[in-house]
Amino acid sequence: MGENASIECIAEGYPVPSYRWFREDELGNLSPLQSKAILINFNRELIIPNLQHDDMGLYRCEASNTRSVVYQAVSLQIQIDPVFVVPLDDQVLDVGTVLSWYCEAYPNELNQLRYSWFINGTEIFWERLTLAQQQRLTITNNLLMINNVQPYDNGIYQCAATNTQNNVQRFSTAELRVLTLAPTFGKNTMVSTLRSTVGGLVSIICNPEGAPRPQIQWYKNNVPLGGGGNVQIFPNGNLAITNIQLMDAGNYSCMATNPFGVAQQSTYVYVMPEGTTIISTPGGRDVILNQTIVIPCDARSMNQMDLTFYWRFNNEILTIDNKRFRQDNPDRPGDLRIVQAQYSNAGRYTCVAQTTVDEQSSSYQLNVFGPPGPLAGVRCTQPFQRQVTLSWVVGSDHGAPILHYTVESLSNHRSWWLFHGNFTIAVPPNKVVTMTLSGLSAFTDYRFRVLATNIYGSGERSEVSPPCVTQPDIPGIAPARLGGGGGKVGDLRVVWDPLPMDFWNGPNLTYRIYVQKQGDNRQQIYTVLDPLRNFFITHL
Fold this sequence. Notes:
CATH class of the largest domain: Mainly Beta
Oligomer: single chain
CATH topology of the largest domain: Immunoglobulin-like
CATH superfamily of the largest domain: Immunoglobulins
Number of helices: 1
Helix content: under 10%
């Protein structure tokens, strides 16, 4: 396997013959050579590189000239040393159990491999086994089984795979160890005491070690137990008492037995007439954001000195960090104090009162109310000259209806946010609010933000919307404080306040000055191109 094979074909004749190669099956059918085959020396020599299993078979050389055709076939066989792909593993078994060993070698065709088995270096021959050995031992090619293993079966076992073509033999080796062990509770000690209340369930674990596996017998107060009633003994040796009563109290002993010894341990079961009772009232609790709330929890138990409390939040154990969550009332150790409650603290709180015997729980639903959550997806669409359409998605109202929405804008004409008003709008089922905002400036680049308000206050402002540009229009107002005077004799000087940018309403703002002398019917028109200029002088 993996080497190169060379087959040479030599024929005599005149004219000099030419050569062709084919693969031939057992029926004499011809097929082309595999693609990796190489022909050299005028096709007389066939080289097959990197031999693999499927390269085995007949190869025909055909020599021909103008007078005749002759051929000869040769069989190519590949010698493969067996390689174990499923070797044996060491086995450690209890006495009386079943050993099963399986091995597999490559090539895995049974007509190329022969399997045999050895123990302690000696091959196992079926006809040499005693009748008792034959009754316990099964060998089927590469499978060996021994029923009811005993200490005398210990040893080194080998699976031998022999290639029938070249008689190369390889071994897979493993050790069998059969254990014998008297019963012991050394690793799995039984608990000394268990406690329960009337009507409860008690499980007593009995899991001793031993080889073979010990037989289990239970006793109550030294009297054998056979199961029945409210006592159940499971196949694995454990014992359960359901709907336990006062009369079920006592000492329960587990006796483990095998041929090599006996071991016994006991558990004393105490039964109490009454368990833990929650005496606080379950229900709902409400708190406003950033306020502190105490959720009550109190209980009574016959084991009052043993009573402890812990809390769960949404079914997960709550960590008392003595910061946000505290149990700091020595007179009521079960009470839970939540400091500066946040929205994330809303949910189901469960108080668990626990003793070594039982536990009881009571649940509370905490609601955290406060200002509305931030609005999402603020968008400006359909911009006209003086108005736009605004839309946004309403978040959580946090326990109270939204009273109004506050709209603010930022434009390219100013660096501060402008308040546009508070708007009361009903929340549609899809929670997408749409409104028309008017009173805007034309040809202005706007960005908007919105916040919501309820009875608990105003929430966070939304993220700023994408830019939105209104359409151009005529200037919004005329320049203010038009006047003149103060120039030289013969000059006309006109002054005014430049128009604020919010009122330009379009690009390329210019000023037109109309001048008419007293008693003259003609008007002169002057144009000022600089929108920031505030005076004009001309000589009349």
